[in-house]
Structure formats: structure tokens, C-alpha cells
Design goal:
alpha+beta, 12 strands
Length: 306
């Protein structure tokens, strides 16, 4: 075979190998992009959640049980600003006799197949009420898991007041929720969320702000009855202050818990406290999101049972 022909064949084989390698690289990039896109919420999901929330609000104000029923998950509960809990059938039964003011500044955040809508409204006797609506995508449609109202105090100085005042700090030991929680885990994903919750609880009890911050999303906000909302950085500052001034961090005991994990999002609802004067009962709703393989608390809302 002439030298020129052998050279042409060698270059042809090299070109073929380069094209094959390039093809694999392109496929790899496309697969990686596809995985990344799949991991992100579909475009417009936040708008869909807001629309569903608006439809529910319209149905509530019109007393339309049929329209409202279609948007409620079977596990739905409503917690009023006074802490009273209304199960799904109670909520629908009282719909025509209730009065619901329209919220302002409604915003949606989507965490995979879990989403929240937050807003504020004016309470009947005056004051502001923070509204947390927790949604989950079930069978391709958004259904609301819970609605929780929290009567808030806008005064900044109230943000740092303790949730559990009056506990004998000298004898306090965080067993529940730091060591044990009265909940029967149903899946490995639930166990991951529980483990993170207990790690976060121990960090708070130990007044370790750095460790606590590792398990909380940057956008985290905490809402409590008769308190001002507090951010992640604000909460970390409180933990630091407790450590510097040797102030014990007292955590409410968990009485009951409900937990749902939907992909990379989770919704947690608990009843906390003992009902005694030193540890009043309250309802707490939390949303968790899994980012880079780690569960983070994204929001919490606590309503005292008055």
C-alpha cells in the first residue's frame, strides 16, 4: 500500500476516534444537564401554587365547599391564630359560617414537590396575622396539607423572647426532642429528616450557633405567636448571646408529630409543650428541603394554644 494511502487511513481512524470521543462528551453533558433540570422545579410551578392558593381563598370567602374540597389533601388541617385545630371535615363544615380576610403580599416558594405560600392579613380585632400554607403535589396536582395562622407582634424587641418561659433551667435536660421523639418512622427518608431535626435541636440546646446554622437554609424565617419574625442570622445571634451570658436554651417537648416526605421536600407538623403554665401547648409547622444531599429547615411557624 502506498505511503500516502496509509497516512490517509491513519488520519481517518484518528478523526473517527475523535468524533466518537466528542460524541460521548456531548451525550454526557446532555445527560448532566437533563439531571440538573430534572432536579429543579418545573418552570411556572410557583405560579401554579399561587393560583391554587388564590382559588382556595376565593372558595373560602364564597363559602364554596365543593371548590375548596378539591384543593384539600386528605390529611389537611387548619390551625387558627388562637391555636384551635380544625380537621378537614370540620373546616369544610364551618366554611359557610366563617369569615376570611384576603391576604396581602402572598409569595410562593417551591421545594421539589412541596411548596409554601406565605402572606399576612389583618385580624378581625386588629393586628397582623402571618399565614403559612403548606402544599404538596399529589397525583400531578397541588393539594394543601395545612394552613396555619400566627398572630405576630411587629415590635423587634419581642423576637428574642423565649418560647418556653419559666422552666427550671437548673434541672433542665433536653431528652425530648434531643434524644427521643414520639414518632414512628416509616421510611429511610423520614429517618433522615428526624436525624437532622434532632441534630439541630441538640445544637440549640448546647447553644452551638455554628452547628445549628449548618442545618438551616439561608432563607429560613421563624414565626411565633405574639413575637416578631426572626431570620436565620437573627436566631444564630440569639444562640450566641445565650452562650455568652450562660442562659440555658429550653426546648419544647414534642407531644405528637406528623411528617410527610415528598422527594427533596418535607412537611412536619408537631404539637409541643406539656400544657402546664411553664410550658404551654403550641402547634409548630416546619418545611424541610434537601440540598446537596443534606436536609435543611426552611421555615417554621409556632402558634400558641390560647
Amino acid at each position: 500500500m502506498p505511503a500516502a494511502d496509509r497516512l490517509a487511513i491513519r488520519y481517518s481512524k484518528r478523526t473517527l476516534r475523535q468524533l466518537i470521543t466528542l460524541g460521548f462528551l456531548v451525550v454526557g453533558v446532555l445527560v448532566a444537564v437533563g439531571v440538573e433540570l430534572k432536579a429543579q422545579p418545573a418552570p411556572g410551578e410557583a405560579a401554579l401554587v399561587l393560583a391554587a392558593d388564590q382559588n382556595l381563598g376565593d372558595a373560602m370567602r364564597a363559602g364554596d365547599r365543593s371548590a375548596a374540597r378539591k384543593l384539600l389533601a386528605l390529611q389537611f388541617t387548619f390551625v387558627g391564630e388562637n391555636g384551635a385545630v380544625h380537621q378537614r371535615h370540620q373546616f369544610l363544615g364551618e366554611l359557610k359560617n366563617a369569615s376570611y380576610a384576603a391576604p396581602t403580599d402572598a409569595k410562593a416558594a417551591v421545594y421539589g414537590t412541596v411548596a409554601i405560600v406565605t402572606a399576612t392579613r389583618k385580624a378581625a380585632p386588629g393586628g397582623d396575622v402571618f399565614m403559612l400554607h403548606m402544599w404538596a403535589k399529589q397525583k400531578g396536582a397541588w393539594r394543601i396539607l395545612t394552613m396555619q395562622d400566627v398572630g405576630i407582634d411587629p415590635s423587634p424587641e419581642t423576637a428574642n423572647e423565649p418560647d418556653v418561659p419559666g422552666v427550671n433551667a437548673a434541672s433542665y435536660e433536653c431528652k425530648n426532642p434531643c434524644q427521643t421523639i414520639p414518632y414512628r418512622v416509616r421510611s429511610p427518608a423520614e429517618q433522615e429528616v428526624i436525624n437532622t431535626f434532632q441534630t439541630l435541636s441538640r445544637a440549640a440546646a448546647d447553644r452551638d450557633a455554628t452547628e445549628w446554622g449548618k442545618h438551616v437554609a439561608d432563607e429560613f424565617m421563624h414565626y411565633r405567636s405574639d413575637r416578631a419574625p426572626i431570620s436565620k442570622s437573627g436566631r444564630m445571634a440569639v444562640i450566641e448571646e445565650q452562650k455568652v451570658h450562660k442562659i440555658p436554651a429550653i426546648l419544647s417537648t414534642i407531644q405528637t408529630m406528623r411528617l410527610w416526605v415528598f422527594g427533596d421536600g418535607a412537611a412536619m407538623i408537631t404539637t409541643d409543650g406539656t400544657g402546664e403554665t411553664s410550658e404551654p401547648l403550641l402547634h409548630t409547622a416546619r418545611i424541610w428541603v434537601k440540598r446537596n444531599g443534606q436536609w435543611l429547615m426552611a421555615i417554621s411557624a409556632r402558634t400558641f394554644i390560647k
